[in-house]
Design goal:
This protein is an alpha/beta fold and 433 residues long. The protein has helices spanning 2-10, 25-34, 46-53, 64-72, 108-118, 137-145, 186-196, 209-240, 244-251, 271-285, 292-312, 340-350, 382-385, 402-408, and strands at residues 15-19, 38-42, 77-78, 89-92, 125-129, 156-160, 179-183, 203-205, 321-325, 354-358, 390-393, 412-414, 430-432. Helix 1 (2-10) packs parallel to helix 7 (186-196) and helix 5 (108-118) runs parallel beside helix 6 (137-145). The chain is globular, with a radius of gyration of 24 Å.
């Protein structure tokens, strides 16, 4: 039986459904379309579904291939899980945030998906989880998903392949980035590998699903700890009146044993601020309370307040008005998940300090980010820039005219080191925090 299924996969005679059409699911669909595979999309958000049916974007980096595909194939996208019954493969790309305590995994999206899919499962389907989860979560997921008639590796197949998207990175693609894959059994792994090789140049097969789950957490913990390290170095260097960016650039000339990380205004995105807590949570449940994870989280969470307090020392009065440059959590993306900009806004509001923002990726502030302001992005012209006592660079988008901003701002607080570039060295109204 498995030989027939493998043959079917190799001939691309399969329907692939993607559940969750966000920053991971939508690019995945685009790659599947380009690989000439028949694709279906499922998402609870009916607004997203309607926009895709009209060929319109809700993520600026959305591929035109995806938009054209669903405009022509309206029936292949829905908020109804019934569509899954038409699929041979179902790939789940749902968010895995933290609960309100900001320390405990919130698996409701993934586990609810299992309940919705359960009644539409059929023999010989392959179910792959791409969401970032704690070790053992895929096993929990399949227990909620399957009933007794299914035997994994015989008439149903389960896999895990952690997403490796990098929104806004023009150099990222799956020709230069390997994809970690795993399966519950050898048959599961075979099918997962065949599928991903349609659009990934190199796959890395991990024997146990739990190892693949943990590898994703380690990737992001590595970044969180190193960002925490350079952020703490920034505070130390500030006390010593040493330029942290010059220190980092000097250290980065070492061609072994060192990787360059830059400080910033705080952590953002879905991965780095959240994923380490998935590992610390499961570790605590097993009897060990991690130290590095906790420490890096404390340091990184303190950076927005440290930066604002340092900024305010430049002014004798709190009767000032600040301009925030960038709402995205990093440059060149319309992604504001866990963005440090929102922490800046909360702190400024608590201190009754007036602010505005400018970000071409966010014409207005999104609802649901615990910010009740109805502010809209201001145009960066000479008149507007001169209204503010300082402009604070939070996301160094390539589309910003940095020379123009510097020429017409009274003061610039650069949290990204953008103005360290040689072409800006003549400027004297820049402070680096």
């Amino acid at each position: 039986m498995i030989k027939k299924i493998i043959s079917k996969y190799k001939l691309k005679k399969i329907n692939v459904g993607v559940v969750g059409l966000g920053y991971v699911g939508l690019p995945l669909i685009s790659r599947l379309i380009q690989a000439k595979i028949n694709v279906f999309g499922i998402d609870n958000d009916k607004k997203k579904i309607n926009l895709l049916k009209k060929g319109k974007k809700y993520i600026k980096t959305t591929s035109l291939t995806t938009l054209k595909y669903f405009k022509k194939n309206n029936k292949k996208i829905s908020s109804n899980y019934k569509l899954a019954s038409l699929c041979d493969v179902i790939i789940i790309c749902l968010p895995t945030p933290l609960k309100k305590d900001h320390k405990t995994p919130n698996m409701e999206y993934v586990f609810n998906c299992a309940k919705y899919l359960k009644k539409y499962l059929k023999n010989d389907q392959l179910i792959i989880l791409e969401s970032t989860v704690y070790p053992g979560a895929t096993a929990e997921f399949q227990k909620k998903l399957l009933n007794k008639k299914f035997i994994i590796g015989k008439n149903i197949f389960i896999g895990y392949s952690p997403e490796r998207e990098n929104p806004g990175d023009r150099k990222f693609n799956y020709n230069n980035t390997p994809k970690v894959i795993s399966g519950y059994t050898k048959n599961c792994s075979k099918l997962v590998e065949i599928l991903y090789k349609f659009f990934v140049k190199k796959t890395i097969l991990v024997t146990k699903i739990e190892e693949a789950e943990t590898s994703k957490l380690l990737e992001n913990l590595y970044r969180a700890v190193n960002i925490g390290l350079v952020n703490e170095m920034k505070i130390i260097c500030d006390k010593l009146k040493i330029d942290i960016f010059n220190v980092i650039n000097a250290a980065a000339t070492k061609n072994f044993g060192f990787q360059k990380f830059l400080p910033g205004p705080g952590l953002g995105g879905h991965c780095i601020p959240i994923d380490p807590f998935y590992l610390s949570w499961i570790s605590k449940k097993k009897g060990y309370d991690p130290k590095f994870i906790k420490l890096s989280g404390i340091i990184n969470s303190q950076i927005p307040r440290w930066t604002i307090n340092k900024i305010l020392k430049n002014f004798k009065s709190k009767n000032i008005k600040l301009l925030l440059l960038g709402i995205s959590y990093k440059k060149n993306v319309d992604d504001d998940r866990e963005s440090p900009a929102y922490e800046f806004i909360k702190i400024l509001k608590n201190k009754n300090i007036k602010y505005d923002y400018s970000d071409p990726y966010f014409p207005k502030l999104r609802k649901g980010r615990n910010i009740n302001d109805n502010k809209k992005s201001i145009i960066l012209n000479k008149t507007n820039l001169q209204k503010y006592d300082a402009s604070i660079l939070l996301a160094d988008h390539d589309c910003f005219n940095y020379k123009f901003i510097a020429q017409h701002s009274k003061l610039i607080i650069d949290t990204r080191g953008k103005y360290k570039e040689a072409k800006f060295r003549y400027l004297n109204n820049i402070f680096f925090y």
